[in-house]
Write a structure and sequence with these properties.
The chain has 129 residues and is of the alpha/beta class. The chain is 32% helix and 18% strand.
Length: 129
Amino acid sequence: MIEKIYLCGITATPPNKEIHKTALGSTESVTWEYAEDVTTLINKLKQEDVKIVAIEQTENSVMLQEFKVNKEEKLAVIFGNEVKGVQQTAVNLCDAVIEIPQFGTKHSLNISVSVGVVLWDLFKKMKLG
């Protein structure tokens, strides 16, 4: 279950016309918090025993289908900027980096697609088996 969404850096926060259009009312039912600096947030969550994973393409990343979840562990998933991805200082603080396997000539996905793919996969692993 998603407990909270943290919005960091230049990410827009509610109330916002574009968020309202897309969220279809979920801004009223999903807890969210703004954090200016993602690295400060990562360090705070680590002190609360939350496992931190970034979604990024790196040398030591684990393919999404191979990533194992511990159902007893709280997990925070870091998604990056649409163009620049997750900043390296944040990646360095993470417990793991997950990569979405991609084939063909294009090797990046729109952030909204990435979020949907990753959260669905993690949900299946945590709730369905």
